[in-house]
Design goal:
This protein is of the alpha+beta class. The model has no long low-confidence stretch (mean pLDDT about 95). The chain is globular and about 70 Å long. The two termini are about 25 Å apart. The chain has four domains: about 1-90, 2-Layer Sandwich (Uridine Diphospho-n-acetylenolpyruvylglucosamine Reductase, domain 2); about 105-215, 2-Layer Sandwich (Uridine Diphospho-n-acetylenolpyruvylglucosamine Reductase, domain 3), CATH 3.30.465; about 220-330, Alpha-Beta Plaits, CATH 3.30.70; about 335-410, 2-Layer Sandwich (Alpha-Beta Plaits), CATH 3.30.70. It has helices spanning about 1-15, 25-30, 50-65, 115-125, 140-145, 155, 190-195, 230-240, 255-265, 290-300, 315-325, 325-335, 350-360, 390-410, 435-450; strands spanning about 20, 45, 65-70, 85-90, 105-110, 125-130, 165-170, 175-180, 205-210, 215, 220-225, 245-255, 275-285, 305-310, 335, 340, 365-375, 380-385. It binds flavin-adenine dinucleotide (FAD).
Length: about 450
C-alpha cells in the first residue's frame, strides 16, 4: 500500500498531473458499462496534455506499472475496466475541439472530446462526423476510434475507421507519434493509423485526431414497418435494398424489444397492433417520388403488415427511441446477458432463423431479445432471465448459448464481435473467428509496441 502511495505521489509531484484515489472515483472510472466485472484500480490520473500523457507512460514503462486508457466508459466488452490494480488514464480533461475547416471538411479534436459535442460543433457548419449511436452523449472520440465504433449509419458511411484522417498517439515508452496529419491521400507504405484504430487501447494512447466530416443530411425521412414473422421482415429489407435511393439506416428489432421500450421509456407502439418484428428505415434521398413509390409498392406487394412515415421531427425522435432505447430498457426489466456478433449480410436471415430455433429448442429458460443493424449484418443478441429461473441457471444457460452462438457464427463466416470489441469479455472466444496466425500476428505487434505488456494488459489478447 505504501509503495502504491509513493508511486502516486511521485506522479503528482514530478509531473503535476491531477490524480484521485477517492473510492467513488475508483469505482466510477474503474469500470465501463459492462456490468460483469468489479473494478479495482490503483488510482485515476487526469492528464491535461499530450506531454503529460507522454511523461506518465514513460514513467509507467520504467517502473513496470500497468495502465488502462479510459474514455467515456460506454464500452460493452470490458475494454476500459481496471480489475487488477492498474492506473486508469482518463482522457476526459483533454476535450478541446478545434475549428472546423470547411475547405478540407476536417476538424482536429483532443481524444477526450465527447462524440455529441463534436456533432454540435460541426452542425454549426452544416457538417457532421458520421459516427452516431445511442451512447454518443457520453462516449469520447478516443474511445470511438479505439473501438472502431459502428452504429446506426454504417450502411451509409461505414465504421469510424473511414472518418479519421490523422492520429496523434503516445506509445508506452512515452514517444509521441503523429500519423498522417490531414492527408486525404498517402500511399507511402503501411498505414499505421489503421493499426491503432480499433486496437482497444493495447497499442498506444490516442491523444488527438483529425476527423473527416460530411454534409449534414437534408432529405431525411424515417419509416417504421410491422411484420408478423422474420421472413416478412427480411422481405421488407430486401425490397428496400433493391431500390437505388440513399439509405442511412436499416434496423430490425423483435416485438418484445419494442414492448420493453414502450414499457420502460413510455414510447407508445405507433401501430394499433403489436407485431413480432419491426423494421426501421431511414432514407436521405432528393428524389422524393422514388421514395413515395417504394412505399406504395411495399403495401401493394403486401410486404409489410403495417407501416408509417414519421411526419415531424418529434415523431422521428420517437420512432428512433423505439430502436435506440432497447438496450437500456431491457436492462431495466431485469438481469440480461448481452452478445454482439456479425455475419455477412446475405447470410443474416438464415443465421437468425437458426439462432431462433436453437433458443426455442434448447434454451427455453432464456427469453431472447434480438435487435440489430440489418444493413451491415450486425446483431445484438440478448437474453433475459425469466422470473422463475434461478440466477445460477440463467448464467449457466447463457454461457452455454454463447458457445453455440459462436459456433453458429463460425458456420456463417461471421465474427464474434461486430461492434463492441473484444476487451475482456470476448478474449477467450476470439479463436472462433480469427485464425491462430492472425492472433499470433496481433501478439507480435503488441510485443513491438509494448514489450512489457503494461498498456491495457489482459485485453483483446494475452
Ligand atoms: C447504449 C449504448 C449503445 C451503444 N451503441 C453502439 C453502437 O451502435 N455501435 C458501436 O460501435 N458501439 C456502441 N456502443 C458501445 C460504445 O459506446 C462504443 O464502443 C464507444 O465507441 C466507446 O467509446 P468510449 O469513449 O465510451 O470508450 P471506453 O468504453 O472508455 O473505451 C473503449 C476502449 O477504448 C480504449 N480507449 C478509450 N479511449 C482511448 C484513447 N484515447 N486511447 C486509446 N485507447 C482508448 C479503452 O481502453 C477501451 O479498451 C454502445 C454502448 C451503449 C452503452
Amino acid at each position: 500500500m505504501q509503495a502504491e502511495k509513493n508511486i502516486l505521489s511521485r506522479i503528482q509531484k514530478e509531473f503535476s498531473v491531477m490524480a484521485s484515489q477517492d473510492p467513488k472515483d475508483l469505482d466510477f472510472y474503474g469500470k465501463d458499462w459492462t456490468l460483469d466485472c468489479p473494478p479495482n484500480p490503483l488510482a485515476i490520473l487526469f492528464p491535461k496534455s499530450t506531454e503529460e500523457v507522454s511523461k506518465i507512460l514513460k514513467f509507467c514503462s520504467q517502473e513496470n506499472i500497468p495502465i488502462v486508457p479510459s474514455g467515456g466508459r460506454t464500452g460493452l466488452s470490458g475494454g476500459a475496466m481496471a480489475t487488477q490494480g492498474e492506473l486508469v488514464l482518463s482522457l476526459e480533461k483533454m476535450n478541446k475541439i478545434g475549428k472546423v475547416c470547411t475547405l478540407s471538411r476536417t476538424l482536429i479534436v483532443e481524444s477526450g472530446a465527447i462524440t455529441e459535442a463534436v456533432h454540435q460543433e460541426t452542425a454549426k457548419y452544416n457538417l457532421t462526423w458520421p459516427v452516431d449511436f445511442a451512447s454518443k452523449g457520453s462516449s469520447q472520440v478516443g474511445g470511438n476510434i479505439s473501438t472502431n465504433a459502428g452504429g446506426v449509419n454504417v450502411i451509409r458511411y461505414g465504421n469510424t475507421r473511414n472518418w479519421v484522417l490523422g492520429l496523434e498517439v503516445v506509445l508506452m515508452n512515452g514517444e509521441v507519434l503523429s500519423i498522417n496529419g490531414a492527408l486525404e491521400k498517402n500511399n507511402s507504405g503501411i498505414d499505421l493509423r489503421q493499426l491503432f484504430i480499433g486496437s482497444e487501447g493495447i497499442l498506444g494512447v490516442i491523444t488527438k485526431a483529425t476527423l473527416k466530416l460530411v454534409p449534414l443530411e437534408k432529405n431525411k425521412r424515417v419509416f417504421l414497418f410491422g411484420a408478423n414473422n422474420l421472413k416478412q421482415a427480411f422481405k421488407i429489407c430486401r425490397f428496400t435494398r433493391e431500390n437505388n435511393f440513399q439509405l442511412n439506416a436499416l434496423e430490425l428489432f423483435s416485438g418484445n424489444c419494442r414492448e420493453a421500450v414502450s414499457e420502460k421509456m413510455n414510447v407508445q407502439n405507433p401501430f394499433s397492433t403489436a407485431y413480432s418484428w419491426y423494421v426501421l428505415v431511414e432514407i436521405d434521398e432528393k428524389n422524393e417520388s422514388a421514395v413515395d413509390q417504394w412505399l406504395v409498392d411495399i403495401f401493394e406487394k403486401s410486404l409489410a403488415e403495417d407501416g408509417l412515415e414519421a411526419k415531424s421531427s418529434e415523431e422521428i425522435i420517437r420512432i428512433w427511441k423505439l430502436r435506440e432505447g432497447i438496450a437500456e430498457s431491457i436492462g431495466m426489466i431485469g438481469h440480461y446477458h448481452k452478445n454482439d456478433v456479425a455475419v455477412p449480410v446475405d447470410a443474416l436471415e438464415d443465421f437468425l432463423e437458426e439462432y431462433n430455433s436453437l433458443v426455442t429448442n434448447e434454451f427455453a429458460r432464456l427469453q431472447p431479445y434480438t435487435f440489430g443493424h440489418i444493413g451491415d449484418g450486425n446483431l445484438h443478441i440478448n437474453t433475459l432471465k425469466k422470473p422463475d429461473v434461478s440466477e445460477q441457471d440463467f448464467l449457466e444457460d447463457s454461457k452455454e448459448l454463447d458457445i453455440k452462438l459462436y459456433i453458429l457464427t463460425t458456420k456463417y463466416l461471421g465474427t464474434v464481435s461486430g461492434e463492441h470489441g473484444v476487451g475482456l469479455l470476448k478474449k477467450k472466444h476470439l479463436h472462433y473467428t480469427r485464425s491462430k496466425t492472425e492472433i499470433q500476428i496481433m501478439k507480435e505487434i503488441k510485443k513491438i509496441l509494448d514489450p512489457k505488456n503494461l498498456l491495457n494488459p489482459g485485453k483483446v489478447i494475452d
